[in-house]
Amino acid sequence: MAATIDKIVHEFNTIRTGRASVSLLDRILIDYYGTKTPVKHISNISLPEPKTIVISPYEPKLLKDIEKQILASDLGLNPSNDGKVIRLSIPALNEERRKELVKVIKKIAEDGRVAIRNIRREGIEDFKKLEKKDEITEDDLKSIEEEIQDLTDEYIEKINNILAQKESEIMEV
After folding, report:
1. Is the pLDDT score of 78 beyond 90?
2. Alpha-carbon gap, residue 140 to 137, rounded angstroms
C-alpha cells in the first residue's frame, strides 16, 4: 500500500502546475550511448527562479537531444537553447488546462484507490485460505479483516489528502 502511495506521489510530481519543479523532467529520457537515460542523470538541473528551470548537460553535444525530447514531450514547454544551457520558462496555466490536469490527477488517484482495494482483497483472501486450512481461527480472521480494512481506510485517506493538496496547487493562480 505504501508503494502505491509512492507511485501516486511520483506521478503527481511529473504533472506541471505552473511553477518550476525538477521532477517535471523525470519522464524525459535521452539516448545516451545507446541507453535511455533520464535528463537528471546526464545534466545539472537548477531552479534559479520559481518559474524557470535551467538544464546544463555535462556534455554540450546533448543539448540538441534534450531540446528535441522536451519539445516532443507532453509538457507543453518551449526550451530556449543558448549553446551552453537550456532554459525552460514555465508559463501560467489557463483555466481550461487546469481543469484538464485536475481530471488527470483524479484518475491517477482513483487508480491508486483501486490498487489499494485490490491489495485489501488479496490480503483477506490469503487469510481466508489459512482459516480453511485451520491455521488460524475464525475470530483471528475477523480481527485480521478489521485490521486490513483499517489500513485500507488509512491509505485511501492519504490518497485523498494528497489529491486535495495537488488539486489546490494546480488551481491556484
Report:
1. no
2. 5
